[in-house]
């Protein structure tokens, strides 16, 4: 037995070295069932705008797809399996960092204008919206622009409109959070102060009007914050968008540009979209539409992979990225909570309408939902609203996952990230499901 164990230990390959030349990157895909450790031995290198610490090992979680870039050259050590691992000098990093430099200059001008008592427009820093088709590198570019800005002492606001994946919190949410330091390589976006509105579906096509309403609510809240904080206003925002860029998706992009008053539109990977947006905003001289090169290292993902990623994002919320957290199971009586669905039903019965008029569905109407076994495995949001009619205009406190519904005893069992009573009795239903293995 001891000899077998020793042989198994000996079979484990030792850490391997990889040398990066200046302006070269190492592209790595981590398998779904193992993690990878990376260590900077010499030189400097960064992952999506965040520098690797010298000498210390950094654990890269399973399923990660990363690019380790070096401006001046570096020697790395890698420990663990990878699905793909290769160096490349074909990288748009110089273009991206030049874009960052232009944005930084705009932030400095806005700060100076605020110090001199300039008006709101002059003291407004860049509001950058990153657009492009699916798998064009939007989230990665956002992350780099935010980390580079934070490294220089700015605190830009990150806005995530990509409800299909969710980089701030779980999918199905429109959210925002200030970025006060370079984004952690492992832990990702910090969750200390997120502002989250729960749409509850992975695509806006289910209820685009509610998607627009939540964008408007988030934008209003951010405007209030910026009006009282000149430094945040000068730092501006970086807005991530979904990859749906045709038909209704394109209309929602235009709506997002207008709603958040974006003044810089960065278009990744599609000249047609760049031309369409440039024509659409040509009457607004204060909006710059810029076409940027897409990184060749971007990995294409099919719909099945995206669905799995959504499930992993929900699991991470309850169990942590490293699966090192323990969610708490709780039971509530049906009478202790009220569950609502946003959208559905009709505005008025046919008898109450003028002759010949047809009833029209109200996309923002709240519908009370009876608790049933259909809720098992679904995610519910906990609203900060005090009354049901405030749900649309209120952000959420967090999420629970329904694990059991006992109809006879009228009790609902759920898991939550922390113990204790729910912060509100008003819950929002969704179409998001997660099946715990």
UniProtKB/TrEMBL annotation:
GO cellular component terms, semicolon-separated: mRNA cleavage factor complex; nucleus
Boundaries of every Clp1 P-loop domain copy: 132-320
Compositionally biased residues, Low complexity: 1-11
Region (Disordered): 1-25
UniProt KW Nucleotide-binding keyword: yes
Coiled-coil regions listed in the entry: none
Record-annotated Clp1 C-terminal domain positions: 325-436
InterPro entries registered for this protein in UniProt: Clp1 (IPR028606), Clp1/Grc3 (IPR045116), Clp1_C (IPR010655), Clp1_C_sf (IPR038238), Clp1_N (IPR032324), Clp1_N_sf (IPR038239), CLP1_P (IPR032319), P-loop_NTPase (IPR027417)
Gene3D superfamilies per UniProt: Clp1, DNA binding domain, P-loop containing nucleotide triphosphate hydrolases, Pre-mRNA cleavage complex subunit Clp1, C-terminal domain
Subcellular location: Nucleus
GO BP, sorted A to Z: mRNA 3'-end processing; tRNA splicing, via endonucleolytic cleavage and ligation
Lineage top rank: taxon: Eukaryota
Alphabetical keyword list: ATP-binding, mRNA processing, Nucleotide-binding, Nucleus
GO molecular function, one term: ATP binding
Domain Clp1 N-terminal: 19-110
Binding locations of ATP: 25, 65, 135-140
Similarity remark: Belongs to the Clp1 family. Clp1 subfamily.
Annotated function: Required for endonucleolytic cleavage during polyadenylation-dependent pre-mRNA 3'-end formation.
Protein name: Protein CLP1 homolog
Organism: Setaria italica (Foxtail millet)
Taxonomic lineage of the native organism: Eukaryota, Viridiplantae, Streptophyta, Embryophyta, Tracheophyta
């Amino acid at each position: 037995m001891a000899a077998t164990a020793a042989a198994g230990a000996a079979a484990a390959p030792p850490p391997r070295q990889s040398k990066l030349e200046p302006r070269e990157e190492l592209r790595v895909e981590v398998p779904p069932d193992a993690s990878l450790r990376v260590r900077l031995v010499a030189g400097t290198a960064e992952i999506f705008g965040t520098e690797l610490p010298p000498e210390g090992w950094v654990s890269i979680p399973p399923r990660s797809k990363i690019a380790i870039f070096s401006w001046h050259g570096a020697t790395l050590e890698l420990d663990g399996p990878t699905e793909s691992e290769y160096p490349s000098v074909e990288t748009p990093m110089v273009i991206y960092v030049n874009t960052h430099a232009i944005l930084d200059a705009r932030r400095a001008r806005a700060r100076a204008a605020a110090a001199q008592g300039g008006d709101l427009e002059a003291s407004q820093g860049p509001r950058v919206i990153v657009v492009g088709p699916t798998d064009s590198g939007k989230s990665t570019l956002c992350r780099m622009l935010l980390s580079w800005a934070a490294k220089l002492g700015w605190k830009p606001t990150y806005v995530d409109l990509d409800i299909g994946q969710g980089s701030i919190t779980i999918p199905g949410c429109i959210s925002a959070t200030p970025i006060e330091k370079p984004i952690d390589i492992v832990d990702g976006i910090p969750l200390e102060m997120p502002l989250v509105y729960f749409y509850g579906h992975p695509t806006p096509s289910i209820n685009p009007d509610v998607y627009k309403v939540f964008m408007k609510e988030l934008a209003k809240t951010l405007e209030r914050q910026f009006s009282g904080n000149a430094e945040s206003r000068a730092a501006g925002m970086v807005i991530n968008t979904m990859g749906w860029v045709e038909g209704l998706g394109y209309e929602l992009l235009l709506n997002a540009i207008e709603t958040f008053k974006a003044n810089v539109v960065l278009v990744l990977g599609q000249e047609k979209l760049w031309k369409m947006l440039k024509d659409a905003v040509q009457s607004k001289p204060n909006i710059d539409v810029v076409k940027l090169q897409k990184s060749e290292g971007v990995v294409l993902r099919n719909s099945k992979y995206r669905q799995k990623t959504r499930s992993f994002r929900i699991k991470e919320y309850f169990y942590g990225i490293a699966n090192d957290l323990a969610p708490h199971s709780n039971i509530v009586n049906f009478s202790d909570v009220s569950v609502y669905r946003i959208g559905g039903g009709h505005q008025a019965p046919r008898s109450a309408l003028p002759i010949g008029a047809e009833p029209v569905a109200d996309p923002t109407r709240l519908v009370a939902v009876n608790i049933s076994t259909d809720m098992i495995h679904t995610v519910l949001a906990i609203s900060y609203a005090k009354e049901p009619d405030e749900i649309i205009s209120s952000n959420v406190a967090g999420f629970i996952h329904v694990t059991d519904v006992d109809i006879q005893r009228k009790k609902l069992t759920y898991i939550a990230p922390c113990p204790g009573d729910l912060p509100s009795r008003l819950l929002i239903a969704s179409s998001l499901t997660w099946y715990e293995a």
